[in-house]
Design a protein that fits this description.
The protein is built from 24 helices and 39 strands. With about 1000 residues, the chain is α/β, with parallel strands linked by helices. It folds into seven domains: about 35 residues, no CATH class; about 110 residues, no CATH class; about 100 residues, no CATH class; about 140 residues, SH3 type barrels, CATH 2.30.30.490; about 140 residues, SH3 type barrels, CATH 2.30.30.490; about 220 residues, Vaccinia Virus protein VP39 (Rossmann fold, 3-Layer(aba) Sandwich), CATH 3.40.50.150; about 110 residues, no CATH class. Its EC number is 2.1.1.37.
C-alpha cells in the first residue's frame, strides 16, 4: 500500500488494493480514492504568494482603525469591515465547523479570512469567533447581511461576503437558513398571536402574499420543493431563530410563539431529572409486582374499591369419590360410530361425554394432577377406552414460567384446550374420579374435586388465552378437537366466503413470479362447473416495461380473465382499490403493501405488452374497486388512550387503519410530545405532557378538574412502555433507572385495571418474554379478566427495511374477539423461493436512495431539514473515509486488515479485542457500513457506532445514518424525529407499517365481535 499523506491533493492519494473478483478466482486491481481530510490548510485557499503576509486580528485592527477611534465611537456606532475567503474551524483539530456552532460546542472556534476596508485588504488567520448577527429584518427589506462580532472589540463587526471554495456548500445552506430566520421573525412580529401550529399553513400563505414580487424570496422558496408546511423546517432551526429573536430584544423574544406549549424553543424541564419516581399502581397490580420491584411501586386504592364476597357452592361429594374398577362396566346410549357410546357406569358412578375427570399421570409430571374432558367411550371386548380433550393446569401453560404465582385459587384454575387423544384412546382404568368444573366462572369452592375454567389456552401458533364459551364443550354426535371432522370442501368454503369483485391472493400460477402471490379479482361464479372466473392483475416485474418510481404495492389492471377451480391454492383475501392516475394515494396505501393493500392506476395490455394510464373506465372501476375509506364507511372508532406515546407512530398507524381515534396521549418527554403534536391529523385530542404516574394517581384518587380520561370512556389502550431495561443493548440493565423503567409495565396493567378498556396492545422488545415481569404481567391481566395473545413480529415482514423484532401483547375484555397477529406480507432477508409472500423484501436502497448526498454531514437541504447526522470527531471521520464501499457492509476491521487504516488512525481498544480473543475475531464489528441490498439494524434513539449495532455507517458516504434515513427505516416520512431534539429519533419503538397492520387485525376482531358498539357494518375483504 502506498503511503497516505493528508496534506496532498486528492489526485496524489490513490491507493492500489488487491482483491479477488466475485466472478473469477483471478486477482484484479481496484483503485480506492481517499480524499484528504478537511483541515484548514493553505491548499484550500487561493494560492498564496511568498510575498503575502498573514496577520493576526489585532494587527489588522491596528492597521485599519486609528488608535483612538474606539474611544470616540458612541454606544450606537459600530465599525463594519467586509470578510472575503472566510472559513470557520475548531481549536482542537482545525476541523471545519458549521457556521452556527454556538449551540452545542465548548471548543474555542476560529476563523480565517481577508478583511476588506475600501481598497485595503489584509489576510487574517486564527481570529477567535465570538458571535454573529443577521440584519435586514422587516417587510420593507429584501436583502439581508450576516456579520460576526470581533472578539477584541465589541464595536467591530465583519460582514461576510465570499467563503473559501471548500466552505461554499456550508455557507449556501446557512444563507438559506438566515433567510428562513428573517421570514419567520417577520411573520411572528407582524402577527403577534402566531403560534407554532400556524407554520403548518398560515406562514406560507402570509409570506407568499407579502413577497410575491421578491425574486430573492422566490429563489429561496424553490428549495423546499413545493412544501407548504414549514413546521419541520422551523423546528430544525429553532435555536437559530431564537438566537436572533433574543438579540433583537423583547419585541421579538417575548412574543407568544416562543412560549407556546408546542414550540420547540420551549426547552425541556430539568428539575427532578435525576430523581427516581415511583411507579403508581392499583392494589391488585401491586400484589403481583411488588416482589420484583419492592422499592419502586406506590400502591393507591381507588375510592370505589370494595371487596368481593365469595360464592358458596353446595355439592354432593359422593359423586366425586375415587372410582373402584372391580365392579362391572355398563355402556349405554350407543353412538353412530361402531362400538362407541355416550356414557358408562362403573362402581355406581356414571360418566358421560362432556364430563371432566382426573386421570393418572403417566410421565412423572411435577404438577402431579392431570385433567381432561371425555369425548367418546369405546367398548373393546371386556375392556373400555375413552377419547379425551386435555384441561391444562396453570403449570401446563406458559404460566409455568412465573417465578411466583400470587393468583387467588391458583390450584383451582384449569384451562380448556383443543389438544386431544383421539388417535390413541386411553384405558378407562386411568380415570381416577369425576371432577366438578365451573366453566365460565372465576372461582369455586376450595374442595379437592372442584375447579373453575375461564379461558381456552392455545399454543399451536402463538400463546393465547381466550374466553371460554359453552360452544366449546363436546356434543353427543361429534368432537370439537377437529381430528374427526370431515375434510374441507374448498369449493363450498370459497363460495361461502367470497363474492363478485372480491380480490384474492393465489399461490403462484404457471409463469408467475415463483415466490410472490398472484393477485386476482372474482369476475363471476360458474355453479354448474364448480369453478370461478378470475381477472388477473400483473406486477411491474412481470412486464418488459421499466417500472417508474412508484410504490411497491402498485399493480396493473388487465383484460385477462381465466377459469379457476383449484380452490386449495387460494391463500387469503386482499384489498385492491382503483386510484385515479396522477392523484395522491390515500394513507392506507402509503405503507408499502402492509396488510395486503394494493392499488392500480394503469392497465397492462398483454398483446402489445404496453402500459397505459386508465382514464375512460375510471367511474366503473371506482365502483368495482372502491377505496378503503369507502369500505369501512362510518365504522365506529374506538376511543384510544396512547400511553408512552413518544412521537406517535403507534397511534398514528392505528388511526391509519381506521378503527381507533386517539383521544388522549401521555408522555413526560417534551421532545416526544412536540413530535406527537407535529404529526397530528386532528385537533380533538388531549395531549398530556406529564408522567403516567401523575395521571394515574389523579385518576385513582379522583382529583377534581384533573386532565385525565374519564372512567368508562377509554375503549383501547396502546402502550409502548420503556424497553431500555429489557434490551440487551443496554449495558446497565440492573441499575436503579433500568429497573424503574422495567416497573412501568405494572403501570400499563394498572391503567387497564382502572379503566377496563375493551382492548389493550402492549409493545416492547422481544427479550421481555424472558423476564419475570412479563409472566407476572400475563398472570395479572388474566386475573383482572382479560383474554391474552402475544407474539413476536418482524418489521421487515411488514415492508420495513429494518431488522426489528418486537413483542406485541393483545388484551381483550370478555365478550370481545381477541385480535390475532398480523400476517406476513413481505419476503424476509434470508427467505428461499419456497417461501411465498405478497411482496419482495424492501431494502435499504429502496428506502433512502432518493435522498441527496450530504458528504460527511456538512451539507444541509431545506427540502430535507432533518437529513443530517450528529457531529463526529475528527478521528471517526478519518476512519469512515477509509472504509471501502465495495464489497458492501465492510467495517473498521476489514479496513485495518487491508491496510486502509494506518496505525495513526487506529482505535487501540478495538484492536486489542482481536489480540485478546482471536477465535472470536470474525464476530467483531465497528463502524460497519450498511448493505444497500440488506436491512437497517434496529434503529436506536441516536445512531452512533458501537459494539452492539455497528451497522450505522452510510453505504456510500463517510458518515453515520442521518435522522431522516433512520426515520424512513421506521417507515414514515411524516414522523419528524427532530422536533425538540436535533440529532435523535423521538418515539421510535414501532414502525408505522407494523402499527397499521396491527390496526387492521383490530378491525377484523371488531367485525367478528358481537358487542353492540362493534363495527359490524364493515365487511372486511
Amino acid at each position: 500500500m502506498e503511503h497516505y499523506d493528508p496534506k496532498l491533493e486528492r489526485t496524489f492519494n490513490t491507493l492500489t488494493v488487491l482483491i479477488k473478483s466475485k466472478k473469477r478466482s483471478s486477482v484484479n486491481e481496484v483503485y480506492v480514492d481517499i480524499p484528504p481530510r478537511k483541515k484548514v490548510r493553505g491548499l484550500y485557499k487561493k494560492e498564496i504568494s511568498e510575498s503575502e503576509i498573514i496577520y493576526s486580528e489585532q494587527e489588522c485592527l491596528d492597521a485599519l482603525m486609528p488608535a483612538d477611534s474606539g474611544d470616540t465611537m458612541s454606544d450606537n456606532d459600530y465599525e463594519k469591515f467586509y470578510l472575503n475567503d472566510f472559513i470557520f474551524y475548531d481549536s482542537v483539530e482545525n476541523e471545519v465547523v458549521d457556521f452556527f456552532p454556538e449551540r452545542s460546542t465548548e471548543k474555542i472556534l476560529f476563523w480565517d479570512g481577508d478583511i476588506v476596508d475600501d481598497d485595503k485588504n489584509m489576510a487574517c488567520k486564527r481570529a477567535i469567533f465570538k458571535t454573529f448577527s443577521i440584519s435586514g429584518f422587516g417587510l420593507e427589506e429584501s436583502n439581508l447581511e450576516v456579520m460576526i462580532q470581533s472578539s477584541l472589540n465589541d464595536k467591530v463587526w465583519y460582514a461576510l461576503r465570499t467563503p473559501q471554495p471548500m466552505y461554499h456548500d456550508i455557507w449556501i445552506a446557512f444563507l438559506w437558513k438566515a433567510h428562513l430566520v428573517k421570514y419567520a421573525l417577520d411573520y411572528i412580529y407582524n402577527n403577534p398571536d402566531v403560534l407554532f401550529e400556524d407554520f403548518r399553513f398560515g406562514f406560507f400563505d402570509w409570506i407568499t402574499e407579502h413577497r410575491k414580487d421578491d425574486s430573492i424570496f422566490k429563489k429561496w422558496l424553490s428549495e423546499v420543493n413545493g412544501n407548504t408546511d414549514f413546521r419541520s423546517v422551523v423546528a430544525n432551526n429553532i435555536h437559530l431563530i431564537w438566537h436572533e429573536a433574543y438579540n433583537l430584544g423583547e419585541d421579538y423574544s417575548c412574543l407568544p410563539f416562543f412560549t407556546d406549549e408546542y414550540c420547540p424553543a420551549k426547552y425541556s424541564r430539568i428539575e427532578s431529572q435525576n430523581k427516581i419516581e415511583k411507579t403508581v399502581v392499583t392494589p391488585k397490580v401491586y400484589k403481583w409486582f411488588h416482589g420484583l420491584f419492592p422499592e419502586l411501586l406506590q400502591p393507591l386504592v381507588p375510592i370505589s374499591e370494595s371487596e368481593c364476597i365469595p360464592i358458596v357452592y353446595i355439592q354432593n361429594d359422593e359423586e366425586f369419590r375415587e372410582i373402584n374398577y372391580k365392579s362391572r362396566w355398563l355402556f349405554d346410549n350407543p353412538l353412530e360410530e361402531p362400538h362407541c357410546f355416550e356414557q358408562v357406569t362403573v362402581d355406581g358412578i356414571t360418566l358421560k361425554v362432556g364430563d371432566a375427570v382426573e386421570v393418572v399421570s403417566i410421565d412423572g409430571s411435577a404438577d402431579g394432577r392431570w385433567f381432561c374432558i371425555i369425548t367418546t367411550f369405546i367398548k373393546r371386548g371386556k375392556s373400555g377406552l375413552f377419547r379425551l380433550l386435555w384441561l391444562y393446569t396453570r403449570h401446563q401453560t406458559v404460566l409455568r414460567k412465573l417465578d411466583k404465582d400470587v393468583s387467588i385459587n391458583k390450584s383451582r384454575e384449569l384451562f380448556f384446550s383443543s389438544n386431544c387423544e383421539c388417535q390413541e384412546p386411553w384405558p378407562l382404568e386411568n380415570i381416577i374420579r369425576k371432577i366438578d368444573v365451573h366453566f365460565g366462572k372465576s372461582c369455586c369452592p376450595d374442595l379437592d374435586h372442584s375447579f373453575f375454567c375461564r379461558y381456552q389456552y392455545s399454543h399451536e401458533t402463538e400463546d393465547s388465552f381466550l374466553s371460554f364459551h359453552p360452544g366449546l364443550l363436546p356434543k353427543k354426535d361429534g368432537l370439537i378437537c377437529g381430528c374427526k371432522r370431515p375434510e374441507t370442501n374448498y369449493y363450498e368454503e370459497f363460495i361461502e366466503k367470497y363474492k363478485i369483485n372480491d380480490c384474492i391472493l393465489l399461490m403462484p400460477l404457471k409463469g408467475d413470479i415463483l415466490d410472490l402471490y398472484t393477485v386476482c379479482c372474482i369476475e363471476r361464479f360458474d355453479l354448474d362447473r364448480k369453478s370461478v372466473w378470475l381477472r388477473r392483475f400483473y406486477r411491474w416485474s412481470e412486464t418488459s416495461v421499466k417500472r417508474p418510481k412508484s410504490p411497491i404495492n402498485e399493480i396493473l389492471y388487465s383484460e385477462y380473465v381465466f377459469e379457476f377451480n383449484t380452490f386449495q391454492h387460494v391463500v387469503s383475501s386482499c384489498h385492491v382499490e382503483f386510484v385515479k392516475y396522477g392523484k395522491k394515494i390515500p394513507v392506507n396505501l402509503q405503507h408499502r403493501g402492509a396488510g395486503n393493500h394494493f392499488y392500480f392506476s394503469r392497465k397492462y395490455d398483454r398483446i402489445t405488452r404496453t402500459i397505459h394510464p386508465i382514464k375512460s373506465e375510471s367511474q366503473q372501476l371506482s365502483e368495482n374497486f372502491p377505496s378503503y375509506s369507502f369500505k369501512i364507511g362510518n365504522t365506529y372508532k374506538l376511543k384510544c388512550l396512547d400511553l408512552f406515546c413518544g412521537g406517535g407512530s403507534l397511534g398514528r398507524g392505528f388511526e391509519d387503519a381506521g378503527f381507533t381515534h386517539c383521544q388522549w396521549a401521555i408522555d413526560k418527554y417534551e421532545a416526544a410530545i412536540k413530535t406527537y403534536r407535529h404529526n397530528l391529523q386532528h385537533d380533538d385530542i388531549n395531549i398530556l405532557n406529564q408522567s403516567v404516574n401523575n395521571i394515574l394517581s389523579d385518576a385513582i384518587l379522583g382529583v377534581p378538574k384533573a386532565r385525565v380520561p374519564p372512567k368508562g370512556d377509554v375503549e383501547i389502550i396502546l402502550a409502548g412502555s420503556p424497553c431500555q431495561g429489557y434490551s440487551y443493548m443496554n449495558r446497565q440493565q440492573h441499575n436503579i433507572k433500568a429497573k424503574r423503567n422495567n416497573s412501568l409495565v405494572a403501570s400499563v396493567v394498572s391503567f387497564v385495571d382502572l379503566y377496563h378498556p375493551r382492548y389493550l396492545l402492549l409493545e416492547n422488545v422481544r427479550r421481555i418474554t424472558s423476564s419475570d415481569a412479563f409472566y407476572r404481567l400475563i398472570g395479572c391481566l388474566l386475573e383482572i379478566g382479560y383474554q391474552i395473545r402475544f407474539g413476536v413480529v418482524s418489521a421487515d415482514r411488514m415492508g420495513c427495511a429494518q431488522k426489528r423484532y418486537r413483542m406485541f401483547l393483545w388484551g381483550a375484555a370478555h365478550g370481545e374477539v381477541l385480535p390475532t397477529m398480523p400476517p406476513v406480507t413481505h419476503k424476509g432477508l434470508n427467505d428461499t423461493f419456497e417461501t411465498h409472500a405478497s411482496f419482495p423484501m424492501v431494502s435499504i436502497k429502496d428506502h433512502i436512495s432518493d435522498l441527496p448526498p450530504i458528504g460527511e454531514g456538512e451539507i444541509w437541504y431545506p427540502s430535507f431539514p432533518d437529513h443530517k447526522t450528529y457531529q463526529m470527531s475528527v478521528k471517526t471521520k478519518e476512519i469512515l473515509r477509509r472504509i471501502p464501499t465495495f464489497p458492501p457492509a465492510r467495517d473498521y476491521y476489514y479496513a485495518r486488515k487491508h491496510k486502509f487504516i494506518s496505525d495513526l488512525h487506529a482505535v487501540p481498544s478495538y484492536d486489542a479485542k482481536l489480540i485478546k480473543f482471536p477465535k472470536a475475531a470474525q464476530s467483531y464489528r465497528y463502524c460497519q457500513r450498511i448493505d444497500p441490498s440488506g436491512l437497517f439494524p434496529t434503529i436506536c434513539t441516536a445512531m452512533r457506532p458501537s459494539g452492539y449495532y455497528p451497522e450505522v455507517v452510510h453505504y456510500k458516504e463517510p458518515r453515520m445514518v442521518s435522522v431522516r434515513e433512520a426515520a424512513r427505516a421506521q417507515d414514515t416520512d411524516i414522523l419528524c424525529g427532530t422536533i425538540g431534539d436535533q440529532y435523535k429519533i423521538v418515539g421510535n419503538s414501532v414502525p408505522r407499517n407494523v402499527a397499521f397492520s396491527l390496526g387492521l387485525e383490530l378491525g377484523r376482531a371488531l367485525c367478528d365481535s358481537q358487542h353492540e358498539n362493534a363495527a359490524n357494518t364493515f365487511q372486511y375483504n
